[in-house]
Amino acid sequence: MFLPLPHTNKPALVVELKYDRTVTAAIQQIKNRHYTQALENYSGEILLVGSNYDKDEPDKRIAV
Q1: What is the reported pLDDT for 54?
Q2: Are strands 46-53 and 12-19 parallel, antiparallel or unpaired?
Q3: What is the C-alpha separation between 4 and 44, in angstroms, rounded?
């Protein structure tokens, strides 16, 4: 998790990294394991970020 400085008006980030899985699996893990509960007192927006490293894919991308 990454929390922004209070005066920046930016969203908090919850990031899940996967190896040879899918970005959807990463986002689903964030939801299934209720990672955002750690931010229950946070009043701003929360952005869920999933990233997958595919060892066979030469073009590396990140999906948000």
Answers
A1: 80
A2: parallel
A3: 10
Token pair 């699996």: residue: 25
Rg of the chain's alpha carbons, rounded to an integer?
Answer: 13
Token pair of 59 as six digits:
């073009």
Residue found by looking up tokens 């009043």 in the block:
43
pTM (two decimals): 0.78
pLDDT band of 53, cuts 50, 70, 90: confident
Burial class of residue 49 in the structure, from the number of CB atoms within 10 Å of its CB (0-12 exposed, 13-18 middle, 19+ buried):
middle
What b/e readout covers 9-39, taking b as 16+ CB neighbours within 10 angstroms? eeebebbbebeebebeebbeebeeeebeeee
Q: Which pair of structure tokens corresponds to residue 64? A: 């948000």
